Amino acid sequence: MKMTISEVKQLDHPIDKLMLVSLCGMSYQLYGEDRGKRFAIYDNNGQQIISHSLEEGKNFIHGIDCKAAVLYQQLPYDEACAQLDGEMSPAMEIPIAVH
Length: 99
Hints:
The chain has 99 residues and is α/β, with parallel strands linked by helices.
């Protein structure tokens, strides 16, 4: 499942969680989690939203109504070996302030 940033902003409720998922080094991909479903968030042109710094990532999610925003740090193994079907292993979640 995927949603565009515009679709997320148009939800009639705050999204449960926005996640900046650490890919490798200083790259982060934006994911959302809402009502038990996890999904990638894309820009309005259908491109994955990937930031090259934590600050840039926070700028992407600024203004989106959410219950929580976290930095999701995957295990080193998962960063090196892509998971199937978008699965993410349990990992460390660090709350981030976006306002």
